[in-house]
């Protein structure tokens, strides 16, 4: 490496939060490598980030503020200065607030950057304004709810615990695409003799590591977990001492719930054979430390929280938690940092309404009192990532909706902006990064100046706060001070951390306090949770209608949600949908042909791929594509609904039915 080397972190919404070594020459990033000293990611990067410099210096980067000069959504803009852009926004907002009140303004942001400061920058601002609140449930809150129902605030085990397991279950996890470094650990566990199962809908990209793949019916995993527990009880394989001492509600589960889940019924619900169920229950019972790595696929259904509850309960029956096994749903380090210092709930003006981000389409199209009259989109791309795309686009196209977008690229959402502001990439600001796949944290500094006239989320909010005459010092404090304030109060999580190393930008590892105990109101694992409407787990049916195929809208290997589509080499050549040969034959469809996939919500044109690995009854469409690469101008979310999960207000991206016909 010839230039100067700087440590940084991958900023994207991926559990791994890889450590980076960034080489800079003359203010430009020339190469990006993995940091071999990072304790979890150890120098390995996925394909997406190996050439991050191509994203940072992409010719597609937005470099100056723009103002719309053509019809809404057409993407015709003319340059405008930062000062004029900010003044226009403040003037429009003041007018809207005077006419309709601040609830007529809605911020929309999610996870374009995971940096703690930048990701949350707009929250105190819109709190202070009294704008409509956004319920940020587009990802997998149902998974958290399911975990919390049983385990309360118990911190997740460290992912490295999988190394002690002799039976690893990749359950609804596409780890090759979405959790690469955990997959490395699984491979190590396998070398030490562990067996690996994949429980999924189809053989996804990570299936090569699995000794056995169990393909289940979509949304039926709750029944599978209850069926396995039925067999553990029937076969006398429970750890009675552990259950009596550490678990609340096992007797009730055993007497009131499990009799309803004999293998014959569970076979019919899940699509697995009775023999497979018996074999799974036996292997689970004899394993010393069965370890479930629970991914997010099954958390996008209308029954998700209940499904997760049943799965989290499963390892308690054999006392697996005591022996190094258990269930890993991702780490949560929320308690390690006093986040309220950043999000400032105390600034909230009034008690404005909440709008669920997965129901943006309805929120924009409803004539509530007041209707949404202005939208501020930052580090998110709702025109393609939000469900019910047709409804969202209809809303974004409203001529009377004043839309501001802060973005790095001309995304589908950016095209609908009235004012479009250029955003910096993560190498152009400093921040603090946590991870939801390990307990590493790391701080970063900007390593290059902003590209063009781009500005970070915090800087834009600073300008908007000044223009709106909001004087609270949170808007004006510099990033250093903010990080110092976050770390000012002593906190058990940081007890063993080398502060010097952290200040120098090295990755460090937090330790969850009082690990090994169950942080629930009863102090036990709560299979029975008396605080919930359904105190015991049971099986809830996912969504069904008369259409014959379940649409699986899984992440693509080399793109991340709608991010990275600016890079030609990372996109698949065509937006395709995969089905089993029998489904293609039944409809007279050919491999490589154009097809319409449709349901009551919309119709999307794909290229058909015939794939033996996809079971009958499924249609798999990977990636959240930009509309410019979609032959019919609509992408997969034109087929997904605004329905929410049973708990947590989550999205139901995988719980949709479709059919396919030739174009
Ligand atoms: N490359 C890449 N990485 C990503 C992302 C990306 O888009 N691309 N997205 C990021 C984000 S935001 C997230 S939330 C995570 C998500 O990452 P994961 O937690 O891995 O979740 P998904 O990839 O949504 O789904 C995982 C698997 O669940 C399967 N699945 C779907 N429904 C069911 C079901 O009912 N039962 C079972 N057993 N399996 C089911 C799918 O087929 C898929 O193989 O990945 C992050 N990382
Ligand atoms: N069909 C289907 N839809 C899905 C999913 C799926 O699996 N299938 N996954 C869902 C899930 S789990 C999630 S989490 C959501 C993700 O939804 P989003 O969080 O909206 O994710 P991205 O599509 O990555 O869009 C992030 C945008 O932020 C921009 N950006 C990056 N850094 C910055 C910055 O510092 N400042 C600003 N202002 N902008 C920045 C990027 O250029 C990018 O356009 O998508 C959901 N949508
Ligand atoms: S997307 Fe995930 S695996 Fe890839 S570099 Fe970023 S953190 Fe690492
Ligand atoms: Mo997500």
From TrEMBL:
Keywords: Iron, Iron-sulfur, Metal-binding, Molybdenum, Oxidoreductase. It comes from the Bacteria. InterPro entries: Asp_de-COase-like_dom_sf, MoPterin_dinucl-bd_dom, Mopterin_OxRdtase, Mopterin_OxRdtase_4Fe-4S_dom, Mopterin_OxRdtase_prok_CS, Prok_Mopterin_Oxidored, YoaE_C. Residues 3-60 form the 4Fe-4S Mo/W bis-MGD-type domain. GO terms for molecular function: iron-sulfur cluster binding; metal ion binding; molybdopterin cofactor binding; oxidoreductase activity. It holds the Pfam family Molybdop_Fe4S4. SUPFAM superfamilies: ADC-like, Formate dehydrogenase/DMSO reductase, domains 1-3. Its cofactor is Mo-bis(molybdopterin guanine dinucleotide). The keyword Iron applies. Belongs to the prokaryotic molybdopterin-containing oxidoreductase family. This is Formate dehydrogenase. It comes from Geothermobacter hydrogeniphilus.
